[in-house]
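User: Here's a chain of 388 residues. Predict its fold as tokens.
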Amino acid sequence: MKFLIASFFLLSSLIVNAQAVNQYEVIDKKVAAMPDSLSKSTSLIANYIQNNFKTNDEKVRAAFYWTASKISYDVQNMYAINFNETKEQKIDKTLKSKKGVCINYAEIFNDITNKLGVKSVVIEGYTRQNGQASYTAHAWCGVKMNEDWFVFDPTWASGYVTPKGQFVKKFNPIYYKADPVKIIISHMPFDYLWQFLGYPISNEMFLAGQTKTNKSQPAFDYYTEIEKYESLPYIDKLISSAQRIELAGVKNALVFDRLAHKKDEIQVLNHNKTSEEFNAISAQFNEAINQYNDFINYRNRKFTPTYTDDIIKEMIETPRNTFLKCKEAISNIKNIDDSNLPLVKNLSKSIDNSIVLCDEQLAFVKDYISKSKSQRKALFGQRTLLGF
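Assistant: Prediction complete.
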């Protein structure tokens, strides 16, 4: 995204971060001296950091400084975002060109940090500077250090874009390990889970510049909620995130687009999940059909060769039990969309019909077993039964 450093935020933070600059000077110089040959992958970068620094604070600083100082903002392609690129493709392309936009900075820093064994996440949202909300989305990171979450923005730390559209490389330590309470002035996640605030603000409040802690609203235990979120399957993560985005208020086009994107992805995943479940049930159903046909062929041969009664009974009970499992499984399919509904209905009807046929054959077997040997032969008529 295009970014200019807000002067009020810069001035208020310089004093606070003055000592931090000196504190990390040795680390930054050592990172700056890292050979270019070791920057071909995040694994190589992480290995260098792992071998040269001891504490997690030192390692995260090294990862941040490398990302912010070695990558230049790609002004020319700031709006040419390829949404089909994978995380790996974004990282690989940026490491080769040493250029990228916010998502590239965030993905690289996030990947290095996680490879260092420190919990990090990419956060997507939008920003507000000089009283105005940006009309483009932004991406940054959250890192958990010593059980506390902090905000890291390697893009804004790398420099700034002038009004004439030129990128000026100038490392800014303000956006390293930022306090969530302070950074919320300028950085608004789409999903309020990643505000790391006990009292999250809404989009309406953010746009109005009302970012001070408001304890009149219910408290939010983001530590617990993040743990719950991370334990969920991917599709459930999307659903919970979409719900929080809606709760925060859809107040601009960026939020609307992000919510729509999540809902579209949820719909696609639900469709795919339904298709997978349907195909699995269909496979079981076809297997049971073959077993049923084997029984019908055996009955048409008047139960020859001779098997024990238990085996004969099992020959029809096996497909019947499979049909029953299919019936239960298909009734548990949720979120069936219009394109899948006719297929599900037809298969469900076929399963029910198959259970009826199996019940008829099972009744015949039970009757057969109850007869004497001489009586059993009379049960077989001249009619040939048809399978599926």
